[in-house]
Amino acid sequence: MKKQFHPLRLLAVGMACAALFFTACKKENTGSISQDTGKSATGAHVETVTKAGGMSVCYVEVNSNSLLNTGKYTLTTGGQQLFDIAIIFAANINYNTTTQKAVLYNNPNVSAVLTNKATQIVPLQNKGMKVLLSILGNHQGAGFCNFTSRTAAKAFAQQLSDTVAYYGLDGIDFDDEYADYGNNGTTQPNDSSFVMLVDELRKLMPTKIISFYYYGPAASRLSWGGKKVGDFVNYSWNAIYGSYSVPNVAGLTKAQLGPAAVDIQSTSQSTANSLATQTKNNGYGIYLWYNLTSTDKHVYFSGVSSILYGSNVTYTP
Length: 317
Description:
two-stranded antiparallel ribbon, 22% helix, signal, eleven-stranded mixed β-sheet, 317 residues, Glycosyl hydrolases family 18, single chain, TIM Barrel, 7 helices
């Protein structure tokens, strides 16, 4: 099945790549999944959330929708959050043609979420949810797969780690799309780059989440030099909405993989339910949702939730 492209990903094209990434720095065994959140960014203690049936992960296009929508859905039985991980979609890996280096860039909408973390991110973390920042190519030739040295990969990893620390995020998600490798005189993908990048990022963020949206050149460049991406990332999920496909990431267990992916706005209820049944029956631990808007979708979510978690979903505006 052909991948359904995210409708707003192209909005960041052409934005200045030399902007400072902090201020200008754009996204598819079901045993108990325990999220020990410890303390939120405010320092307040957060109760550990344990939800049998695996995790639900949700991408939000923050160019047009509020990340806070992910916190409005709870299990009717037990009251736990439906979504365990909310992903800010998306920041960009841009290319500075002057320095010939990759730089992290946030468009104004992403920046607004990050700089207003007290009202946009912390409320979700206080509910026990994790908040990740997705990183996406931006047609400038820079991508996760064409770093030509460990020094260059480490420099970009440092930008990611600094951003996670500064904004109190829970981790980074990699989405290897729209890089347009070769633009601006950049090189084509190589076998070492992505492995080096996640290796360096894990060293900088030993306790944070690193996830991989299983798509693009990175999906076929997952091992190099005796190391593999699965040694360093926490999770990977299918990128083809409306389909069931197990990401081939060696080193990850079933609990860390999401073969089911749905577009909330276009995947039918019957398909979403079928994907949930396959996820549960085959023992996988993640179910991926994309494109949550402000529209109340608790009936749609209940179809899946009743299969995964044995509970309907309640919507609280």
